[in-house]
Amino acid sequence: MKALILVGGFGTRLRPLTLSFPKPLVDFANKPMILHQIEALKAIGVDEVILAINYEPEQLLVMTNLGIKITCSQETEPLGTAGPLALARDKLVDGSGQPFFVLNSDVISEYPLEEFIAFHNAHGGEASIMVTKVDEPSKYGVLVMEEATGKVERFVEKPKLYVGNKINAGIYLLNPSVLDQIELRPTSIEKEIFPQIAEAEKLYAMVLPGFWMDIGQPRDYIIGLRLYLDSLRKKTPSKLANGPHIVGNVLVDETAEIGDGCLIGPDVAIGRDCVIESGVRLSRCTVMRGAHVKRYSCVSSSIIGWHSTVGQWARVENMSILGKNVNLYDEIYCNGGVVLHNKEIKSDIMKPDIVM
Ligand code: GDD
Ligand code: MG
């Protein structure tokens, strides 16, 4: 089976992290977002993953040696969420008539892909969508479906008025015949293709068991980490850190160094080669690869980008995001600061602000 992952888009809502790496390569729980999906696809026997991109593929070439064939399909202009399927048509269709997966690259879940295949094969329609329930459906694609069968009656992308609370989770299984309905031009699968298939009564939705989050925005990224770690706790608790300095669910790369007298957690990810000095307090945050948090500083509800430094006795909180290689000086207070890569921060950021 084959899968296509939509990895274009500009990831503007996750700046400044996405100014240094394309969104799919931004680390989530200590590995690039997209790797979570590639591993899930590989685990159920998908043999080729096509990355649909609209920038130069160089940066994505780190995705090698994963034991699965990875190819790129590069757009010369952004083709939206359906156009890339038309572009990759020859790669997706192999004459077997088998359905293929399509995934948004910024969603995180438990990926029950085998159940999804069984669901798709059983309903006899053309396309299947995974759905999940959320409290704030207006930022997503909303589906109205027949409870008993899963048949989708309506698909409304980002509705202004309330339609329902079951939303498109960004994980699809499509029959090759769907490609006959997509032209090679910028096209939205959500606005143009799914409503059409729903109209033809060939679109079905399966409610996703377990957690789900679109981690394409900082607040949701931080919530997504909590949900992901909760699920890890249930499934493979041995992957989580423990000890007297750990509170709740914490993921620590084995190469990270952690000093004495720290208090870490809940809901923290500490990446490869990080240095956390003594007496540091971390909660609800991500510290990315190569970052250095100096002694007695405190980081909460924030993201510390790759190779950044947090000075001693500093305090970083309230959805602060430090881009790559930021240097926050000693004793600085950073309250909701969104700091561009390579910046030196020498004075306090007293209220949420962008520092360019
Ligand atoms: N190749 C390519 N080209 N990919 C693209 C392009 C493009 O022009 N535009 C967007 N993408 C990719 C993004 O990288 C992302 O993986 C996916 O398509 C969806 O785009 P987002 O920009 O993240 O959309 P969204 O989050 O507002 O909404 C989508 O996801 C929701 C679930 O997270 C929609 O599919 C909603 O219906 C859905 O509920
Ligand atoms: Mg998104």
TrEMBL record:
Its EC number is 2.7.7.13. Gene3D superfamilies: Hexapeptide repeat proteins (2.160.10.10), Spore Coat Polysaccharide Biosynthesis Protein SpsA, Chain A (3.90.550.10). PANTHER family: SUGAR-1-PHOSPHATE GUANYL TRANSFERASE. The keyword Cell cycle does not apply. Keywords: GTP-binding, Nucleotide-binding, Nucleotidyltransferase, Transferase. Residues 2-223 form the Nucleotidyl transferase domain. Pathway: Nucleotide-sugar biosynthesis; GDP-alpha-D-mannose biosynthesis; GDP-alpha-D-mannose from alpha-D-mannose 1-phosphate (GTP route): step 1/1. GO terms for molecular function: nucleotidyltransferase activity. It comes from the Eukaryota. Residues 246-355 form the Mannose-1-phosphate guanyltransferase C-terminal domain. Belongs to the transferase hexapeptide repeat family. It is an enzyme of class 2 (transferase). Pfam families: GMPPB_C, NTP_transferase. This is mannose-1-phosphate guanylyltransferase. Signal peptide: none annotated.
